[in-house]
Amino acid sequence: MEGYSGKITPITYTIKEEDGDSIEGEATISISSLEVRDDIVVASDSAIAGTDRIVVDIFANDPILTPDLDTLQITGTQNPGDALVVEGEGVWSIEGDKIVFTPQSDFLGDPTPIEYSVSANQYDSKVASFAKVSVFYPLLTRDDNATTQSGKPVSIDIHRNDNGNIDVSKTRLSIPDNFPIPNTTISTDGRKITVPGEGIWEIDENGIVTFTPDDECKDTPTPITYVAITPDGSKTSTSTISIDMGDDCLCVVQHDSASSFNALTIALMMLSTTALLYWRRKEEA
User: Fold this and answer.
1) 224 assigned to some structural domain
2) Shortest CA distance to 63 belongs to which of 33, 98, 93?
3) Count of domains observed in the chain
4) Which H or E run includes 273?
5) Which of 118, 201, 228, 237 gives the lowest tally of CB atoms within 10 Å of its CB?
6) Contacts of 175 (CB under 8 A, 6+ apart)
7) Domain, as residue range, for 37
8) pTM, rounded to two decimals
9) DSSP assignment, residue 37?
10) Between residues 245 and 272, which one has the greater pLDDT?
11) 112 and 80, same structural domain?
12) Residue 192 domain-assigned?
């Protein structure tokens, strides 16, 4: 349709014989735009989240020959060339043939990816091509803390304040060095830590960590750590997860030696009582 510049919706068709009988099976017709490609940009190691802006050369990896910059538009804006303000994150703007992300000063994460559209000058009809832009600051994880009611399970999105192109599905929990709780165990896949007398830590495929306290312990558990990794496995970053439930966990974990000690104490008390009765009877006699 003349003047239309949006995405083209795929259609299906069915072949029929001349007598009207349908031939089984359907096929889909779709028109893909190969003029522009998605951009994934990781800022330089010196870039600082919440401070430095990231410039994306969106046409550097595209086959489009002569983009019509007058049609370059960020999805979600009213007109080509308009800036997109993402509340709580920052501003995406168009500067010539580039798209720029400028963060809010208090936003320390990576921005939500955006989409843009553009047409090519070499065609008479202005059919728009669409692509996505994702930008990441250097890999950097930050400590996480959550507050909950005593004895209640709590979940944390540990990557909400992290930077970098992180493969969230590969994030694993870890037990810190010199962890003070004996007999603490971690599963072979790094997704579950069991702390005797405190509770269980678990992480899912989306990077959500849940701590479920033991019935006997309703206070603050000992913090653990997690390890994030980039998709190619070349970089990792470790940070701490802590839960605030009030007082530190004072639950006592019973060991075999405690039972022996209690039995010995009881025996000595009985022996002392018997001896005292013996001496008193002897004096009375």
Assistant:
1) yes
2) 33
3) 2
4) helix 256-284
5) 237
6) 184, 186, 193, 224, 225
7) 33-136
8) 0.65
9) -
10) 245
11) yes
12) yes
